[in-house]
Amino acid sequence: MTLTAAQQTEIAKPVRSPRGLVKIIHASGTIRIATGGNVTWDSQSWVKGGVEIKNVKTGKGGVQSVRITLINEDQIYSELAILGSFKYKEVFYWEYYGSSPALEDPILRFHGEIVKIPTMSNKIVFDCSTVGASTKRIPNLTLGSPHVNHMPRNGEKITIGNETFTIEIN
């Protein structure tokens, strides 16, 4: 098999790693960080920042997880993390190739929320998972007679605190 000149040219080019765009929606404003340099995408400015993306995975039930590390220059993120105001904030992560993304180029690799902040020093680590994944656990609890009488019927809604649940009987 002989390669064409165009194929040989493409093979000779250096391999490029994907660049990333990270967006964290926060009460004090949306944080937009780009791994490859300052870019404009989706009519927004993305600032070059020290950000690392690792362990993008899909687990049981389609739950995605990712670890995002922000370089904490000038302790810029510490105050927000100490106040706990990053927890459960919405996070997006896109990947693209090239120096600047065209509107259609970036691919959404992750959409979720920050569920844990295990490390905070000159780097802040965010463990993230699919939105609501931490609350989608099936309780290991059986309710029935004679311990519980007057159970709500299947499909009935009950409220505990400010949350509403729908009864499902298997």
Overview of this protein structure:
The chain has 170 residues and is mainly β. It has one domain. The chain is 8% helix and 44% strand. It is built from two helices and eleven strands; from the N terminus they run αββββββαβββββ. The chain has helices at residues 5-12, 78-82; strands spanning 19-26, 29-34, 39-41, 44-48, 51-58, 64-71, 90-96, 107-120, 123-130, 157-160, 163-166. The strands form two sheets. The chain has a nine-stranded mixed beta sheet, with no helix packed on it. A two-stranded antiparallel sheet has the order 10-11. A hairpin with a 2-residue loop joins strand 10 and strand 11. It starts with a helix and ends with a strand.
Biggest sheet layout: 9 strands, mixed
Task: Tally the beta strands.
Answer: 11
Q: Separation of termini? A: 60 Å
Low-pLDDT ranges = 135-140
Quote the average pLDDT: 76
How large is the share of residues in beta strands? 35-45%
* Radius of gyration of CA atoms, rounded to a whole number: 22 Å
Question: How many structural domains?
Answer: 1
Percent range for helical residues?
Answer: under 10%
Structure annotation, total helices:
2
Overall, the morphology is extended
Q: Helix and strand succession?
A: HEEEEEEHEEEEE
Spatial ordering of strands, largest sheet = 3-4-2-1-7-8-9-6-5
Structural class: mainly beta
